[in-house]
Amino acid sequence: MKMRFLAHFVALILFPCWFVSVRAEEIKSPQPCDFKALFNFGDSNSDTGCMASAFYPEILPYGETFFHEPVGRASDGRLIIDFIAQHLGFPFLSAYIDSIGTSYRHGANFAAGSSTIMRQNRTVFQGGTPFTFEIQVAQFNQFKNRTAKFFNQEKENSFTKDIPRPEDYAKAIYTFDIGQNDIAAVISQSGMEYSHAVISEIVDNFTSQVQYLHELGARTFWIHNTGPIGCLPVAMPVHNAKNQSLVAGYLDLNGCVNYQNDMAREFNKKLKNTVVKLRSHYPDASLIYVDMFSAKYELISNANKEGFVDPSKICCGYHENGHHVYCSNRAIINGKEIVPGSCDDPSKYISWDGVHYTEAANYWIANRIVNGSFSDPPLSIAQSCHA
């Protein structure tokens, strides 16, 4: 035993470079995954046209920065999901219900603005959209089954060039960015004694749908937690009634509402716990938990350093003294017509319309998450099938 230890010690002294090269070889990161498609589920943070196709389309100045026209995105340009698709080498995802000029060869987007994880037929979840997470998963199942029929024929036809192959679903990456509207609903009922139970129920419902997607063949899951909802400018007192007295601790150092962010943190903690449990249940799957809260909060905390204006400022819309006229809308306030336009330079703003982020902010955040810096386990999205 002593002789072996001595030999090892001598080798370390005489041949240190050899040992370093062996160690580097041992910890070499895994190869990028060969994803065949990308399927996304979420709310307005990743909706690329569902609500615009289903209801009223957006109007300018939405989309003005990159697309130079409204394209169904709640931003002046690209969303985080757009940058994720580009990073993986895919085209922008078409909304599932968008029937004009769409291609689903490399995946589809089921996200819809105002969507929630919970069904919206209970008091706390009034309003919103019919496209809940459960409905989005049902749409995916229908999409998968219907596209498979075209490949059960003897030969491909002209339509099959625009849809995924049956084998692509197991080799796809499934991304999720949903839950913010559920937390907003809980916050709006802040006096509820059962808010903790509701948050647990929200996470349980999310878990059920992920399990169902696994049954349908999904194997790589990229799951975003919810962002700092208390840092959305429309939630900040600066855009609401003036001179309101705030108790100590109501706001943090960035002007964000503490109790609202605490709700988001509770949801995120329970979400991470359930992701860990799912890993033990599904050893054949890869489940990546992405800390979007921390990524977004880092940007908000370092706004000036990163070249942005004060994070409470809103590029498009009118938000003063508790009056909120959202981007592209108009209203009469104190006898005066308000028709708010966008700011001169959206690239300097974090918040586009008080709720959603600008393309510049989305780009900043996307660059921080795709490399695995905010992921558990810390894998880049291109390597996320190896967890």
Task: Walk me through what this model shows.
The chain is of the alpha/beta class. The protein has one domain (34-386): SGNH hydrolase (Rossmann fold, 3-Layer(aba) Sandwich), CATH 3.40.50.1110. It has helices at residues 2-14, 16-26, 50-54, 80-87, 133-151, 180-188, 195-215, 258-281, 292-301, 359-369; strands at 38-42, 107-109, 173-177, 220-224, 286-290, 317-320, 323-326, 331-333, 336-338, 375-376. The strands form three sheets. The chain has a six-stranded mixed sheet, with helices on one face. Strands 6-7 form a two-stranded antiparallel sheet. Strand 4 (220-224), helix 8 and strand 5 (286-290) form a beta-alpha-beta unit. Helix 5 packs parallel to helix 7, helix 7 (195-215) packs parallel to helix 8 and helix 9 (292-301) packs across helix 10 (359-369). The radius of gyration is 23 Å and the shape is globular.
Q: Which series of helices and strands comes N to C?
A: HHEHHEHEHHEHEHEEEEHE
Question: Segments where pLDDT lies below 50 for 5+ residues?
Answer: 1-27
Question: In CATH's first tier, which class applies?
Answer: Alpha Beta
CATH topology annotation: Rossmann fold
Strand order within the widest beta sheet? 2-1-3-4-5-10
Radius of gyration: 23 Å
Distance separating the two termini: 37 Å
Q: Specify the overall morphology.
A: globular
CATH architect. name: 3-Layer(aba) Sandwich
Main beta-sheet annotation: 6 strands, mixed
Helical proportion? Answer: 25-40%
Query: What portion of residues belong to β-strands?
Result: 5-15%
GO molecular function: hydrolase activity, acting on ester bonds
Family: Belongs to the 'GDSL' lipolytic enzyme family.
Keywords: Glycoprotein, Hydrolase, Signal
